[in-house]
Write a structure and sequence with these properties.
Blueprint (H helix, E strand, L loop, with lengths): L15 E4 L4 E4 L21 H15 L2 H12 L5 H16 L7 H12 L13 H15 L2 H7 L6 H17 L5 H22 L5 H13 L4 H26 L17 H18 L25
Antiparallel strand pairs: 1-2
Helix pairs in contact: 1-2, 3-4, 7-8, 8-9
């Protein structure tokens, strides 16, 4: 197996290179040293210096964050991300600016500092981008954006903020239809929500969820929220509600009200009050009549009482 080349051994085989973005052949001095010798056989990156820095500037304008912009640029250009090299590059930029000099090629400064900060830089592979590093960095960034109360309530180990939002929404929906008054009930509903999320994510990845569904059904039974028990509970509530309704009628309304509604049309005595204190004054005002006679007997025979229209 051939020996792997070092950074110093990679030299441009010619004095020119081709930029994929410019789509032009440019002098070798227009390119940074390559980090992927399997693709860039001439020892030069396949994107020129100007466009490497332009990619960084684009990401920086979108995210307004040098750290994130550099990570994304390194990912696109297959260059390893190093916090130490970034710190040195930023220090170099500050030094140039303090002297009144222009410092607009941060990626270039970073690329030059990358070799001096890596102690194992003999192998060119050490300068290539590593997905695992990037994913860990992005995950750390996501965790920083998640509210501490959410992490405290649901725990860690979820992939993104979307998972926490799903869990919160799911628990809120369960609380609308099921009792959740003590810690045991809250814990069981939380476990149900988490299991539903696991099933949801596994199905999205095309994995088998039969065992998870069985576990979810067991959780339903433990929490007494499976459909069979829910129907029995609902039936009991309906029966209780009907009983209270009948009791209310028996206590506050005559039982004959259903058959003799006309007789008991004014159980609270509103008709005499309306006639004496609303219709009579309005009639006096409109017609000029001087009817000041008030009948305060609310126990009059209501079958003989008629509500008179004010206009009549």
């Amino acid at each position: 197996m051939p020996r792997k080349k070092t950074i110093k051994e990679i030299k441009a085989v010619s004095g020119e290179g081709y930029c994929r973005i410019c789509q032009k052949t440019l002098p070798a001095s227009s390119f940074y040293e390559a980090t992927n010798p399997m693709i860039d056989k001439n020892g030069l990156m396949s994107v020129c210096r100007n466009h490497c820095n332009e990619i960084f500037d684009t990401y920086n304008s979108i995210h307004n964050n040098i750290d994130i912009a550099l990570k994304l640029t390194c990912r696109d250009l297959d260059v390893r991300y190093s916090e130490e090299a970034l710190k040195q590059a930023q220090s170099h930029v500050e030094s140039l600016m303090s002297k009144g000099k222009k410092a607009d090629k941060l990626f270039g400064y970073y690329k030059s500092k990358l070799g001096s900060t890596d102690k194992s830089n003999k192998k060119l592979e050490s300068f290539r981008f590593k997905d695992s590093e990037f994913e860990n960095i992005i995950n750390d960034q996501v965790e920083e954006d998640i509210d501490d109360d959410l992490v405290l309530f649901w725990g860690r180990g979820f992939d993104s903020i979307d998972d926490y939002i799903f869990l919160e929404t799911e628990l809120s929906n369960w609380k609308k239809t099921h009792k959740c008054d003590n810690q045991a009930e809250v814990t069981l509903l939380k476990e149900i929500c988490i299991k539903i999320l696991i099933i949801r994510n596994k199905r999205a990845d095309g994995e088998n969820v039969s065992q998870d569904v069985k576990e979810l059904q067991e959780l339903f039974k433990t929490a007494s929220v499976d459909p069979a028990k829910a129907n029995v509970a609902s039936a009991g509530k309906s029966h209780d509600a009907w009983g209270l309704f009948v009791k209310d009628i028996e206590q506050f309304r005559p039982a004959e009200w259903h058959d003799k509604q006309e007789k008991y049309k004014d159980m609270d005595g509103f008709i005499p009050y309306i006639k004496n204190y609303i219709i009579r004054p309005i009639k006096n005002f409109v017609t000029g009549n001087r009817d000041f006679q008030i009948n305060d007997n609310i126990n009059v025979n209501l079958e003989d009482e008629e509500v008179v229209d004010a206009s009549g």
